[in-house]
């Protein structure tokens, strides 16, 4: 008799809520796009690229990531990049994906706003039909730039309203609290948009509090630093504010020394609505299922805990209600035999 649990995260439908499309640019694609668009890059081979991908903190990563995204120039590039991500995500049983894109990182290099948004929107339209995956763009505004840039991005993006699921805040965190963006976020809310912000990734718990109180966000991206503030932890649990946690990203950027020291399980047990995401999978070593599998192995996450994490992603998604309930029912059906002991291979 064998009692190895038959649990495979691939069988579990899930939403990915925190992934930067520019961070899905795999090294092979980066080299191809550089060649196709005649963009000079500091790498000649995959090995050059892979040896550059060692980071000491968020800033050291962002510098490499900003250099990499300069190879993206045309609508076709954004289409192919997004299509490749959505195809890969569907293999992980992602049924709904909300991808961050930062148009200002591209428009400041002369890439038209339309090329970014049209390319991504076309990839979503095809993926919806061909792969039954839904979602859309989280319009990312840059916290280290003037708020005027953010207001302009919102106005420019209104033409793609059907494809934009939310406004988000990203970029270097330390020294850039979210508060100054309060009116930007109020504008998004007035347009009926959902909102989210990176906070408490490497910045202090106060930034999480500020994002909730001043930006009035629906979700927090990362948020792992909240543990240093027990009152904030209780508040996040009581208010059910979802955290889009990215375990492999946090280790790659040395926020935790390794996955064994990640606080994901503690946050879950404190009653927070924690989700698992990839952030920048081409840079941090894995897509969403890899994040689940590696975190589960390092932290001893049970099947029950992993199902809760996946269910939280559906609860926290900005998605169609019927579709949400359909997939939450699938998770309930996977969960049921756990309680009757039939999951074991005996
Ligand atoms: N982890 C991260 N934090 C802030 N901004 C980002 N842009 C891409 N990845 C990011
Ligand atoms: Zn991020």
Automatic annotation (TrEMBL):
UniProt site (Important for catalytic activity): 222
Catalysed reactions, semicolon-separated: adenine + H2O + H(+) = hypoxanthine + NH4(+)
Gene Ontology biological process: adenine catabolic process; hypoxanthine salvage; nucleotide metabolic process
UniProt-listed Enzyme Commission number(s): 3.5.4.2
Residues holding Zn(2+): 18, 20, 198, 279
Cofactor note text: Binds 1 zinc ion per subunit.
Domain Adenosine deaminase per the UniProt entry, residue ranges: 13-327
List of catalytic residues: 201 (proton donor)
A cellular component annotation (GO) from this entry: cytosol
The protein's required cofactors: Zn(2+)
Enzyme class label: hydrolase
InterPro entries with a match to the protein in the record: A_deaminase_dom, ADE, Ado/ade_deaminase, Metal_Hydrolase
Gene3D superfamilies (UniProt xref): Metal-dependent hydrolases
Binding-site residues for substrate, renumbered to this chain: 280
Recorded GO MF terms: adenine deaminase activity; zinc ion binding
Annotated keywords: Hydrolase, Metal-binding, Nucleotide metabolism, Zinc
Family: Belongs to the metallo-dependent hydrolases superfamily. Adenosine and AMP deaminases family. Adenine deaminase type 2 subfamily.
The protein's role, per its UniProt record: Catalyzes the hydrolytic deamination of adenine to hypoxanthine. Plays an important role in the purine salvage pathway and in nitrogen catabolism.
Designated name of the protein: Adenine deaminase
Species this chain originates from: Bradyrhizobium pachyrhizi
């Amino acid at each position: 008799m064998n009692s190895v649990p038959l649990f495979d995260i691939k069988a579990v439908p899930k939403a990915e809520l925190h992934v930067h499309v520019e961070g899905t640019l795999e090294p092979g694609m980066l080299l191809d796009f550089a060649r196709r668009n005649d963009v000079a890059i500091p790498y000649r081979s995959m090995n050059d690229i892979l040896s550059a991908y060692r980071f000491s903190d968020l800033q050291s990563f962002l510098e490499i990531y900003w250099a990499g995204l300069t190879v993206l120039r045309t609508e076709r590039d954004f289409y192919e990049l997004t299509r490749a991500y959505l195809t890969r995500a569907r293999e992980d049983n992602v049924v709904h994906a909300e991808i961050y894109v930062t148009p200002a990182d591209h428009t400041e290099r002369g890439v038209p706003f339309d090329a970014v948004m049209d390319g991504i929107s076309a990839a979503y339209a095809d993926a919806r039909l061909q792969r039954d995956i839904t979602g859309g763009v989280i319009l990312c505004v840059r916290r280290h730039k003037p708020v005027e840039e953010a207001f302009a991005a919102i106005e420019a993006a209104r033409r793609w309203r059907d494809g934009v699921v939310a406004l988000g805040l990203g970029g270097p965190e330390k020294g850039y609290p979210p508060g100054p963006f309060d009116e930007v976020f109020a504008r998004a809310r007035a347009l009926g948009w959902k909102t989210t912000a990176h906070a408490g990734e490497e910045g202090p718990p106060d930034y999480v509090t500020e994002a909730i109180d001043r930006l009035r966000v629906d979700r927090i991206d990362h948020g792992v630093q909240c543990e240093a503030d027990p009152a904030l932890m209780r508040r996040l649990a009581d208010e059910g504010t979802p955290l889009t946690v990215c375990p492999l990203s946090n280790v790659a950027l040395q926020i935790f020394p390794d996955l064994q020291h990640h606080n994901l399980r503690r946050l879950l047990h404190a009653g927070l609505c924690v989700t698992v995401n990839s952030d920048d999978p081409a840079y941090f070593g894995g897509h969403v299922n890899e994040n689940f599998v590696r975190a589960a192995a390092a932290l001893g996450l049970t099947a029950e805990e992993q199902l809760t994490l996946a269910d939280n992603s559906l609860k926290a998604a900005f998605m169609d209600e019927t579709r949400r309930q359909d997939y939450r029912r699938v998770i309930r059906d996977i969960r049921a035999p756990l309680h009757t002991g039939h999951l074991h291979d005996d």
